[in-house]
Structure formats: C-alpha cells, structure tokens
Design a protein that fits this description.
This protein is about 35% helix and about 35% strand. The protein is an alpha+beta fold.
Length: about 160
C-alpha cells in the first residue's frame, strides 16, 4: 500500500496543469516505470443536445473521503507508487478539463488497470452532481447504466 504522502486528492474550482501534476506526482522516484492518466474534458454535446456549460457540485468532505476510499482500494489491488486525483467543481465551459486521474507504478499493466478502476468508481461512487445548460434550459445529468456496468466488472 502507498504511503499517505504519495496519494493526493484535490477538489478545486481552478484549472489544473496536467504536466505540473505529473511532475509533482513522479517526484524523484526512480522506481516509477509507468504513469497512466485519464483526463476528462467538458463536451459541447450530451444526449443529443448542445451544452453551453456545465456546473459541477459536490459535498465537501464526503467527496474527498469517497475518492480516498476508491484510491485506497486500488492500492490494495495493485502495487502503486503514487496516485493523484484532481476534480474540478463550479461552472465549466466546453473544452475545460474536468478531472485528472494519474497513477504511477513500476509497470504499465498495474498503472493502466488502477487508472481505469479509479475512474470507473469515480463515476459511480463519488458524490458529484452535474447540471448542464442546453438550448432548452438547465437539466441535471442522470447516472448512466454503462457507468454502473463498467464498475460492476471490478466486483468479481
């Protein structure tokens, strides 16, 4: 399991710099042989409707704890050397970066698997609420069954 100082979770309104996060996460650890990342980006279209912006809300404290639990479970499954999750909240426009999951390990297979695992559970377990502005007004985004199915495959 990772030492606590090798796990970082940040919920923030400000944009993030992917390269800066990766540099900080890797530090000077010569044992890191692979870094897998996922970057989620705000789209201009969802469910067939144009989206002019999206507002992400969360429950402070509860959200960070949920993400910490997801990352800790990934650390129990795979030999990880570092992990960082950055998730934005507030008003976001299309092309804005929303989320970064970055996982470092000695080998690529573990990094890829852990990154995908964390992202699958972020979509289903972390308490975020999304509201989109469309030409027909505002709407809350409902959970997709495909997200639940993706998370379910890790439960076996």
């Amino acid at each position: 399991m990772l030492k606590p100082d090798n796990i970082r979770i940040s919920i923030q309104r400000e944009p993030f710099d992917v390269n800066a996060v990766l540099d900080r996460m890797r530090g000077s650890d010569p044992g890191i042989g692979a870094v897998a990342t996922f970057v989620g980006v705000c789209r201009d279209m969802n469910d067939g409707s144009g989206v002019s912006d999206m507002t992400l809300e969360h429950y402070p404290g509860m959200t960070e704890n949920a993400i910490k639990g997801i990352v800790e479970e990934a650390c129990e499954r795979w030999a990880l050397r570092a992990c960082e999750v950055v998730h934005r909240v507030g008003l976001l426009s299309p092309t804005a970066l929303i989320v970064l999951v970055a996982v470092a390990s000695s080998h690529r297979g573990e990094a890829f698997a852990a990154c995908e695992f964390i992202m699958d559970f972020l979509k289903t377990k972390a308490p975020f609420w999304k509201k989109e502005t469309t030409p027909n007004g505002e709407r809350w985004v409902v959970a997709r069954s495909s997200d639940s199915q993706a998370a379910d495959r890790w439960r076996s």
